[in-house]
Specification:
266 residues; five-stranded parallel sheet; 23% strand; six-stranded mixed sheet; 14 strands; alpha/beta
Length: 266
């Protein structure tokens, strides 16, 4: 059997909004691994929380893609090592955004995984993170920048960000009013492509599942190569439009349905 490379977003795909993991999804993920397929988590999360999700799933992937593709990890022995890191100078983008979103909250993750944030960051795991004044975010290269603006609806926030014409960075808008910024040209697709090349798995043997706007590039890259890109049922319309298939929502174990079908096909 030729193994599939199965790239899985975490939030809204593997886990629910409250970070809980459905037993059926857990069983399905383990089953495809036991069947010989390669599961890779591809997420905007930090290295630590990506690794901890793999532990919760009871799997030891050969690779992980974190920080929306800016960080690619490879398992060597009992630990993961950084095999590719992308960074950028966040000062220009942060300064431009803060000028139009003065009440926004900000977080920067550096190549070591250390996160610095300003007051007001909510609904984020800030364990081992450091709260700093806004100026404290500008000095170091970043793998990832997060901007939150609770005062704005998603569409309004998107319009504001689009109007800035951010250059030299790539960005995606989340379900709530938050923005994820990565180095220019870096996204989950570029990270997963590095993994596929290392494992010598062609795109037509890749299946990806996700639910967010930061999955669109990954969906398009896989679909263009003859692979399968599956959007979760609760995904925004533009995410579904970039996919080749749509499954049920995360609350209805949509990921498990996809993985169980793969096992039947095999």
């Amino acid at each position: 059997m030729q193994p599939l490379l199965i790239g899985l977003d975490i939030d809204g795909t593997v886990v629910h909004e409250d970070d809980s993991l459905a037993p059926r999804v857990l069983e399905a993920v383990r089953a495809v691994v036991d069947a010989g397929h390669v599961v890779v988590l591809a997420t905007g999360r930090s290295q630590a929380t990506t690794e901890s999700t793999a532990v919760r799933l009871g799997i030891e992937p050969s690779h992980l893609v974190s920080a929306n593709g800016a960080l690619v990890l490879q398992r060597r022995g009992d630990a993961y090592e950084q095999v590719h890191v992308e960074t950028f100078d966040p000062s220009e983008a942060l300064t431009a955004i803060s000028a139009v979103l003065p009440k926004g909250s900000y977080m920067v993750e550096d190549p070591s995984g250390h996160r610095r944030y300003t007051n007001g960051m909510v609904d984020w795991n800030l364990d081992d993170a450091e709260m700093v004044p806004f100026e404290g975010l500008l000095a170091q290269p970043a793998m990832r920048v997060v901007v939150m603006s609770p005062d704005h609806e998603v569409d309004e926030f998107l319009e504001i960000v689009e109007s800035l014409g951010l250059h030299k960075v790539s960005y995606a808008i989340g379900f709530s009013s938050w923005l994820d910024i990565a180095p220019d040209g870096v996204n989950k697709a570029t990270g997963l492509e590095r993994v596929a090349e290392a494992l010598e798995i062609p795109r037509d043997r890749i299946v990806v599942v996700g639910d967010g706007r930061n999955d669109i590039d990954m969906f398009r890259w896989v679909a263009e190569g003859g692979g399968r890109a599956v959007a979760m049922g609760q995904a925004p319309d533009e995410v579904k439009q970039a996919a080749t298939d749509v499954t049920a929502a995360v609350e209805d174990d949509g990921l498990a349905l996809v993985l169980e079908e793969l096992l039947v096909r095999a």
